[in-house]
Amino acid sequence: MAAFWDMEVNISQEDRCLQMFELTFDLSVMSYLIPLLKGACIYTIPKDEIKYSYIFELMDDHHLTFALMVPSMLHFLRPYFKEIDLPEMKYSLFCGEALPTDITIEWSKCLPNAKIMNVYGPTEDTIFCTYYTFNRDSENKSRNGILSIGKAMNYNCNIIIDENNHILPAGNMGQLCLGGIQLTPGYWKNPAKNKEAFFYTTYNGKQERFYKTGDLCQADADGDLLYLGRLDYQIKIQGFRRELSEIEFHVKSFLKTINVVVVPLLDPIGNAELGLVIESNEFNTEPLQDYMKSQMPLYMVPKLIKFLVVFPLNTNGKTDRKELGLTFKSL
Asked: Where are the alpha helices (DSSP H) in the chain?
């Protein structure tokens, strides 16, 4: 908790805070515990309400001052950005998914006085352990259109490793690993998984225990982490290894405000190929395909395209990539 207050987030009994998560999702703990500790009000979402529309109403009707959300909520709220004016909002935090820079810039205009932060942390290093503060007046650090997840919070540390658990210097891509006092002792009665996920290495002159997140990242010269996606979001096509986030970035550059997800697929003979799901009513994709071919090698251009009016969300409110992949099963 001390690390959270060190982020210069100040909450008092005068604040009004959003709690949008299922109680099985660890982010819910932060959303109700922080307000309770400070005597602030908590506003929740009834089970029978549509989450994104009710959040809009809560923010507007009750002038909320603190909100921690998953980035997927912004895609649902985006059509209403011109109607959203929240000068009372002081803190707007995002966690749980990659946060696109473009939609963050748009969102910042809806809450002109808020401090916007992108925070990161898996359940194993709960609740979050790195943070990046959005800059309103200068360029923000990002990669493939995804906002940086920043530096380690106090009492935490992180490293980037290669496939042999060797620590990589700044500028190299590798797996993000987390250490510090927030790290879990391990998985309950699962020594095999513990051995796979945790390891010791020399860090700052002493042996430190780290957790392998499965996230592909790159640290810049300042120590800020650039998020590149999950390791299992990488795909090898025709011998070339690429991140799905890179392909999504080019598609979004053309479609602007339309949300997209690229999913890895296997063709009937077992070769890797790509599917593109677009959150929209159907439209002519020939201009999009021409643009993709002008920006990427042909092997990176998705061969299969599907449309969904609304992307499915899992119980934590995140875009359900697995479910999107299943939309191609009928092909």
From this structure: 2-5, 27-38, 51-62, 72-77, 101-110, 191-197, 244-255, 286-295, 321-326
Identify whether the C-beta of residue 101 lies closer than 8 Å to the C-beta of residue 80.
no
- What single DSSP character describes residue 49? S
Pairing of strands 272-279, 304-308: parallel
d(CA 90, CA 8): 12
At 194-222, the pLDDT tens digits run 999 999 999 999 999 999 999 999 999 99
pLDDT band, very low/low/confident/very high, at 272 (cuts 50, 70, 90): confident
**What local confidence, expressed as pLDDT, does residue 331 receive?**
45
Question: What is the token pair recorded at 321?
Answer: 């990539």
> Is-contact 139 104, C-beta < 8 A?
no
> For tokens 């020399």, what's the residue?
202
Task: Quote the tokens at residue 163.
Answer: 């496939």
3-state secondary structure of 205: coil
Query: For 324, which DSSP code?
Result: H
